User: Fold DNA polymerase IV from Dokdonia donghaensis DSW-1.
Amino acid sequence: MQRTIIHFDLDTFFVSCERRLDSRLMGKPVIVGGTGDRGVVSAASYEARSYGVHSAMPIKAAKQLCPNGIYIRGNGGTYSKMSKEVTEILQEELPVLEKASVDEFYGDLTGMDRFHNAYKYSKELRQRVMRETGLPISFGMSPNKTVSKVATGEAKPNNEIKVDPGYEKTFLAPLSIKKIPSVGQKTFIQFCNLGVRTVDLVQQMPVEMMTAVFGKNGRIIWERCNGIDNSPIIAYHERKSISSERTYGQDTTDITKLHTTISAMAENLAFQLRRGNKLTSVVTVKVRYSDFQTYSKQIRIPYTAADHILIPKAMELFKNLYNRRMLIRLVGVRFSGLTEGHYQIDLFENTNKTVNLYKAMDALRDKYGDHTVRRANTIGDGSRTIGNQGNPFNGQPPILLAHRHQ
Assistant:
């Protein structure tokens, strides 16, 4: 049976999320990413791209190209929440869904044409996603994942393309070889050295020549250029871990800053757990020193999503881990072994007071931003890149929280 594979991609996803939060960002050059000297661009609006800004570019270079752009630090928790909204709609409507990333999805509609027009159905689904989430999304449809993904790239921004069976090679032929998945910058330079810049030239090459030059990857590229891809759709499953990392602008041994960073990460991740109705059973802390040596420690705990349990566990791991007394480049916290569930109070805790406190804090965060309410010991230079503090139109000061659970 001829396969029908659809590929959805949320256009400039992080930028679109920020614009949904604040419509005044519409039509302006918006750049999302770390704002320190070592920061990189995570996403750039099409307006910013017209200045030459693109993802993975150093923020420093982006500011030289687009000095008048709006630079936003971004909030992974907010983006995950909006991604989940889209995921739930697609899961409801597609027989098989693969979530390739936070903003990219594959669906298998094979056999649907016996009952419905698959392309028409997908167009209606795309409209539903935009209507219910306010996020622009594009899709490509073809008999396989590679051609559908390339088609989505050609459809952007905010459009759709269908490549009928038998026309895969014709569709791909005039495109740059750079648009084929698995052709990175180094491979593209190799192709340029061979005088090859477009897909049609690869289509004319013997596969033996490709493998001789590029090894095993040569056959994969040759097949993809010829519209051949039998890779299956891998059904989506809920993630089993969440994490946060910070790379410091300057390597540090400031123990106060390090403690603040770890506490802020653990606090924010605990909130993400509660917002997603998740509990964690494993806490991991990672440290990367200035010589790039990386170490981590983890501990298994009873299932929980409580700040006052998770923060001390993370701090304990860090204190046991940090023994080289060298400058630190990066620290990270990860919660894994996730399962569905709500935070349960301990029989020996102060009954409902703790649960009610978390509910009140989380309600404020959902309404006004992840860091509207913060513990006093997570305020400081060590937490300045944790969470969403970059939107220039949303300068809500945090409510400091200091209570017995530190």
